[in-house]
Amino acid sequence: MAIIFNKEKKTFSLHTAKTTYQLKIGNLDYVNHLYYGATIRDDDLSYLIRRYDRGFSGNPYDSLKERTFSLDAQPQEFTTQQQGDFRISSIEVQNSDGSFSFNGRYRSHSIYKGPFTLEGLPVPFATENDTVDTLELVIEDSITNIQVTLLYSVFEEADIIMRAARVHNAGKDTVHLKRIMSVCMDYMNGSGMDLISLPGRYGQERQVERQPLTHHVHKIRSGRGISSHQQNPFVALAESEANEDYGSCYGFALMYSGSFVAEAELDQYDQCRLVMGINDRQFSYAVRPGEDFDTPAVLMTYTHKGLTGMSRRYHDFFRNNLNRSKFIKDVRRPVLINTWEAAFFDFDDKKLVEIAKSARDMGVEMVVMDDGWFGKRDDDNSGLGDWYVNENKIKCGLHELVRQINDLGMKFGIWFEPEMVSEDSDLFRAHPDWVMAIPGRHAVRSRNQLVLDVGRKEVQDYLISSVNSILDSANIYYVKWDINRAITDLWSNALAGEDQGEVSHRYVLGLYRIMDGIIKTHPDIMFEGCAGGGGRLDPAMLTYFVQYWSSDNTKPLDNLKLHYGSSFLYPVCTMGAHVSEASPMVPIETKAAIAMCGTFGYELDATKLKKKEIRTCKKMSDLYHKYYDLNFFGDYYRLSDPFTPVNLVAWETVAKDKSEALVTVVTVRLTVNGPQEYIKCKGLDRDRHYRVEGDGEGHIMSGMALMHAGIPVPREVPEFTSFLYHLKAVDR
């Protein structure tokens, strides 16, 4: 059993393959958090909680004047409200009488097989190889009859615990949630812990910041209506001495694609509390009698094997448990070329066919027609929302264009931006009330677009119908689903004024319904997500999209940092990366080597390449296929940190059975008469021998030598040279 309830001791022990999580029904039926860490079997860890008289920390009224019991110092599974705990909270509810109070105490629990599900929200699934148990633990306020069900699903073999919360109004009056988190984690000793996050900006997504916890509230958030370029819904807590290979690390990944928040507080007693969930800014959600409100799920993992160990848990889980598409494992994804940087809005059917003919010689297998094929769309000022073919550009019609591309032996892909609308569009003229705009105020424009209120069912139905009509009209193999602005002007004409605090969350729920109605009804189409690049790359999106466009910034040296930061959570097979004309001083071979740390493709005008460049691209496309399984399904190792002053940036993927590995090295800084440098491998079988292909000599070396002595990297090379070292196990 992955979940064990000790009735006598009132403890719940949640066991994965290598971790234990324990909680307890404690004093006065408050639920205490006891432990999360390496496996501990058959122990009651409540001895870890020590109680003292904490001055000016309040005591529950029914503690019978017991001054050593204060919720301000107790480790809790979910916080109360107005009960003497002054730390960051996991719930704020306004009751029907206007009061703000929630006093949740244990009421009941149940344990069952399989993962929990959430209304309208994506969650992971269990594979046939997974053992999954779920605990539902109900805490209740006996005065208001507001219940919160704490949900825990234990993916035993994956070392992942999924958490969420469900609020149920069992009372007689409507209440309003002002704040509701998916997870609350209390650590009895948080001193010496660091908070790791992935901040960024447009074109520089998922950079890495690591900061020590101080006696403040550290807040990571997006208030942009999407998970955003500026932050990613992931944080980690790590021991200050933890590195890639050693030390305790706790990961928290939120499965939500809208505004979110994660807060960590080191309190007056050096205890740490971390909460994570929907951003409570401009949030207020009515829960009427008999209704439920589900929070998005958080995927938690713990390891004492450093940041690499944490990342590998997420990589394996994301590949195995988030998306059922055949393009995850069963069907290889083709090398694609996207037409955006080749033509922007200036193209027609003949130009697309010419690009396809040239790209075919590069090893490209699919042409993607980007923005500009629909409605009245000659620039970004018009046409969005009118999802019908612009036959002034696609003169032969979409079906015939796709046939011509298919006759070249190539697949066809197409671009959409369903959630936005142009003011100069038939859709806006017919339904101006479908746009988010605060009454009496001009809406904020961004890229000359307005935001559709996709929280409304009629908007959802229109988008499902119109996009599906295009997808069903031709042999479309791939879709790039874009969103090119943040969400502002939160207002829905379908809701009363007092319910406008629900708009942002309803938008996200509506988006998931739209994607259910389009993506999941087209299992033979490969869907890639995009949000002006990587502005909405999050775990929830990966339940719909097999890959996500990492960034609109295709400069290869910038992508060294972007891929490094992304790899803390996301596996290579989820990160779209292309070779482009950006950074002409960087060789194509190096651009391609970096793009192979992603799903690989091209973003350029193939008709303008020289014959030598086309041959080079063909060689790199072939290498993508040669190393496909290794890159997509192998264990990933960060061998150097591009955020520090280094001469070489390197990473490695190792086959699960350790039979082969691929080490990629990029020279980023060459110094005159500098030292000889070595790249030390990781993850190999120390007792096996490997032939090193790529060093020009085919040396055979032991795994032990490769990991401890390393591979010497040539010095006398041109700027920004890359090296691919393929290690293949051999018998000796």
Radius of gyration, whole Å: 27 Å
Low-confidence stretches: none
Distance between the termini: 44 Å
Mean pLDDT: 96
Number of helices: 13
The largest sheet, given as strand count, sense and whether it forms a barrel, is: 10 strands, antiparallel
Query: Percentage of helical residues?
Result: 10-25%
What structural class is derived from the secondary structure elements? alpha+beta
Number of strands: 39
**Approximate strand percentage:** 25-35%
- Outline type: globular
What does this structure look like?
Strands 6, 7, 8, 9, 11, 12, 14, 15, 19 and 20 form a ten-stranded antiparallel sheet that branches. The protein has a nine-stranded parallel sheet with strand order 29-28-27-26-23-22-21-31-30. Strands 5, 10, 13, 16, 17 and 18 form a six-stranded antiparallel sheet that branches. The longest helix is centred in the middle third of the chain and has 16 residues, at 306-321. Helix 7 runs parallel beside helix 8. It has 732 residues and is of the alpha+beta class. A hairpin with a 5-residue loop joins strand 16 (260-266) and strand 17 (272-278).
